[in-house]
Amino acid sequence: MLHLSFPPLLALVLSASLGAALPVDQVKKSCSLSKYQFLVPHELKAVQKMKEQFEEIMLLSDRKCNTRLFHRKWKIAELSVPDRVMLVEAELDLATTVLELPATPTFTEARQKPLAFLTQAREDLRVCMAMESPSHQPSGKLRHWLQKLQTAKETETTACLEASAILHLFQMLNDLRCAALRHQCT
Fold it and tell me: What are 1-17's pLDDT values in tens digits?
């Protein structure tokens, strides 16, 4: 039987009751993006499989898209770390939005793992931005790109946004890796 004296017992009871009284949101989460520095092979395979399946679907359709959203004249390495995180969060927000759209049953199945992975990465990025740079204002380069993204969301068809996001998933994953490095990246 465990015997505790009054002060340690009181401390134990108080810490348990105070811990239960505080909402989970108020517990400080750590900001660690290190798990995205080296992506797990099965995650990459799932993304590759989904992308290939999407490309097959596109061959059967006659989509004509003009969006050049992911063609940038600058490299992510030129951005500050908070800008990198903000960029990747916006990219992943677009990707998760289009992957949540209704699709054929086989494509719905193929995108489940990538969607879960990308959603988790986006949430991790949001936590980091909220913790480390809550009042960060994007640089001119990033602000221009974010405006371009917003314009594309308003003017491009859903099918074109979907195609652009899915076909550039590996660029997004590279951008995620670069944001996670927090140092110079290529």
Answer: 444 444 443 343 334 44
Whether residue 52 lies inside any domain: the answer is yes
Residue by residue, DSSP assigns the chain as -----HHHHHHHHHHHHHHHHS-GGGSPPP---GGGSS--HHHHHHHHHHHHHHHHHHHHS-------TT--SS-GGGS-HHHHHHHHHHHHHHHHHHHTS---HHHHHHTHHHHHHHHHHHHHHHHHHHHH-TT----HHHHHHHHHHHHHHHHS-HHHHHHHHHHTHHHHHHHHHHHHH-S---
What is the pLDDT at residue 103? 87
> Could you tell me the residue range of the domain that residue 50 belongs to?
34-61+84-184
Is the pTM higher than 0.85? The answer reads no
pLDDT score of 32 more than 80? no
